[in-house]
Write a structure and sequence with these properties.
about 15% strand, single chain, about 40% helix, Rossmann fold, 10 helices
């Protein structure tokens, strides 16, 4: 689906990522820059690019650029902070100076996952690792510099390609004929094109400040794995439940990072249920979809 916004020029940072690609599909004529083309934390490059964008009639900068390697962030905290705090702060400062709108995307990992219910925007964050701390720092830096910015937290994003959880599940099933999936981690799986549409919906409603925006519903990794296989016509593949502790990691991950998106819904913006996102991803990859049985 493409939503036309005539007369508005958009710029997408982090254009090579799943959300960046979805935004380009959604915004005809959007300018786009990958991380290799644009280090958002570099003052000279960022100032020059945004000044050119403003002179050309630019309206909104969409920041989908981030350091997302959770484990590697522990070894490279300065680089993670540069990408996730310093870069977003600079974008917000320059957008404020030039009168540009800014959409910045954050993460469910700002929470520690100790609650049993989905998190609202009012719940206090408690990040568990370098990645999570820097993403929270980026949120604060953006809203301090540009209170009119839209900052959206999302969860368990998947999209074009197979470098995400549903893709890994299918690769494991085809390679091994069986799958192991964690039953004690919960989130709100989100299809990147649905997220892009939701972000644009909030922008069209002049939303400002902090919002949660994710696929409707709550799922464990186990539920997401089983749904992916069923919808892909591989429901006969056995899925073995296991605990998160079966996959040792230096980074503590939130056991429950599902997001309550009622604030966005109150403005008329709600993403489809997460299973619909999985089905849409499978179709986009040319994988036959089977009807789910009740």
């Amino acid at each position: 689906m493409t939503i036309d916004t005539p007369g508005r020029l958009h710029l997408v940072a982090g254009a090579a990522g799943m959300l960046g690609r979805a935004l380009q599909d959604l915004l005809p004529g959007a300018l786009a820059r990958t991380h290799q083309e644009w280090d958002i934390a570099h003052l000279g490059t960022t100032r020059r690019l945004l000044e050119d964008f403003a002179r050309a009639g630019g309206c909104i900068l969409w920041n989908a650029a981030a350091w997302t390697a959770v484990e590697a962030a522990e070894d490279h905290p300065d680089q993670a902070a540069r990408a996730n705090i310093e870069g977003p702060r600079l974008l917000a400062e320059e957008c404020a100076r030039l009168g540009l709108g800014l959409v910045h995307v954050s993460t469910d990992f700002v929470f520690d996952g100790t609650r049993d219910v989905p998190y609202t925007e009012q719940d206090p964050p408690h990040p568990l690792g370098v990645y999570a701390r820097t993403k929270l720092g980026g949120e604060k830096a953006v809203l301090d510099a540009l209170p009119s910015a839209l900052v959206a937290r999302t969860s368990w994003v998947f999209g074009a390609g197979w470098r995400h959880f549903p893709g890994r599940i299918l690769e494991m099933a085809r390679r091994d004929g069986r799958v192991r999936a964690v039953e004690d981690e919960f989130g709100s799986p989100t299809y990147a094109p649905h997220l892009a549409q939701g972000l644009l919906g909030l922008v069209q409603r002049n939303a400002q400040g902090l919002f949660h925006l994710a696929g409707q519903g709550r799922a464990s990794r186990l539920e997401l794995a089983r749904a992916t296989l069923t919808l892909a016509g591989l429901g006969s593949i056995p899925v073995e439940p296991c605990l998160a502790s079966s996959f040792p990691s230096r980074v503590r991950r939130p056991a429950n990072s599902a997001l309550d998106c009622a604030r966005a819904a109150s403005l008329g913006v709600a993403l489809p249920p997460w299973r619909e996102g999985v089905a849409a991803w499978l179709r986009s990859e040319g994988i036959p979809e089977l009807e789910e049985t009740p």
